[in-house]
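We emphasize that the prediction below concerns an isolated chain of 590 residues; any contacts that depend on oligomerization or on bound cofactors are therefore not represented. The input was used exactly as deposited, without trimming of termini.
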Amino acid sequence: MSSFEDGALPPPPARSSFPSSSSSSSRARRCLSASLWRSKIEAWIQAENAFNPMEKSVEVPSTTSGASFWRKLGSFLGPALFVSVGYLDPGNWATDIAGGSQFGYSLLWVLFLSNIMALTLQILTTRLALVTQKDLALICRGEYPRPVRIMLWVLMEIAIAATDLAEVLGTAIGLQLLFRLPLIAGVVLTVLDTLIFLLVQKYGIRKLEVFILLLLGIIGMCFIVELFMIAPPGADVMSGFVPQLSSESISAAVGILGATVMPHNFYLHSGLVQSRKFAYNIRNLRQAFKFNVIDTVISLNFAFFVNASILIVAAAVFYTRGIVVEELQDAYTLLGSLMGTRVASIMFGLGLFCAGQSSTLTGTMAGQIVMEGFLDLQIAPWLRRLGTRIVAIVPAVIVILATGESGTYKLLIFSQVVLSLALPFAVIPVVRFTASASIMGPFVNHIAVTIIASIMVLFILSLNVWAIVGYYGDLLAMGLTGQLIVGLVMAPVCLFLIGLVIYITFFWKVQSRFYLVEENSTTAADAEEASTSSSPLSPEELASRRQQRYENEQDDNLLIPISTTPSSPSYSCVPSSPQTPSTSKTYSAT
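Result of the prediction step, given as a token string:
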């Protein structure tokens, strides 16, 4: 008989056989925490994949709704905020500081002129997008043959990568100035802002607009504080708006103009205005034109204020003391020492950091619009953001390791040269498409507008060519290495780009048509909608169904404006039937 049967207790199990309550609960907590984080990341990625900046997610009041002017304006404000960010990237900061420290206030008129040009071209872009209900990349896909549109897509992707390079450097320099991080560590840390994009954009386009507005507000506040502390002489500032140029200041003026107009902004703006949902008729189109113009004027003038403030600060602090500053880090250090307080330096660093972060968000959205428009290819925006950022980080790390922190300024200038090369392939399609009566119908540009826009484009392109020639000169001065780069790489690329510019300017033929059907006429699709409806369709419901049919047949290039009532004709964007009605008219250029 065992001792257990005799009433004795069995021996206790070894201590190792007991599960530790503390270790098991710790493991459970870790597993739960990992599971929660995994579910959060999956939710972020799902929200990111579902996000489409061009989705018509923002309802706007119609012209007959009786809504107040301010309510209508508030519903349209936002798209141009993203565009204004492109005019505040670190490349602009570098050119403004260099110009202000070398030539004082005398280049303020160049900033003002470039702002007028940007306003004109961006307004034409919104007009084109609203009339066609397509973004610029999608229109190019319908108008140009496949090889040309693939070339345009490649050029825009290069431009977006160059912009991202400036954003990486700006964010890294901002982190270095504010937190004393090594520059290369700041460059690597910029990969993490992909997560910021995931966190913010899942809340929708309106929340993104608020986030961008917050960042822009911080930038504006920083420079208001700077100007208040510096108190530049008003008479000297106003004298800078009088056109004046010397042989020494031409290169600085070219740099300011070349850094101001950003090619990807035209694609971005044309896509973001699609987020506003309204019945597609002539009255609502005119209302959309009006409020988008107000949105563009407010946002781009804010960007002008910031750029002018940077130049004024550089002129008041550095030029008056005979100090030429070309490095952003030097500007930060000298601001604090010359003004006797670190507040000015901190404001400068904080503004630069916010400029880099805001540009990050808009660059991702522009890339999404360009890829979907040109190629009809959709990939997860977070994956696209990560890929673009890695492409930008690699040259930044190589330059910093090879030349030290002093090479970052040259890298910023190089990014602006790349943007200059890509600029014609955004502005020329905008001017040509908006001047085409076949595409724009009754909303075609007046001949005077087309002439003014063409002169602006020629002026911008001429100055950009000047900058590129100057860059060639710098390469040739490097000796045999520079000569090989120019002869084997730069010259063939420029000849290819010149040929592409000539093609899209002179040999492009319109594919789209804008037809006007006589009043009281309807299409077969309208009759089918009416017959299947249980109740009579109102003009607004009919226009909404036409819009839905159009979105379901994006491959059709024809836009048919149709009159719904004799008293108030409305224009609807719908696909045409193969047989155009005999009563239709085609708008002529006159």
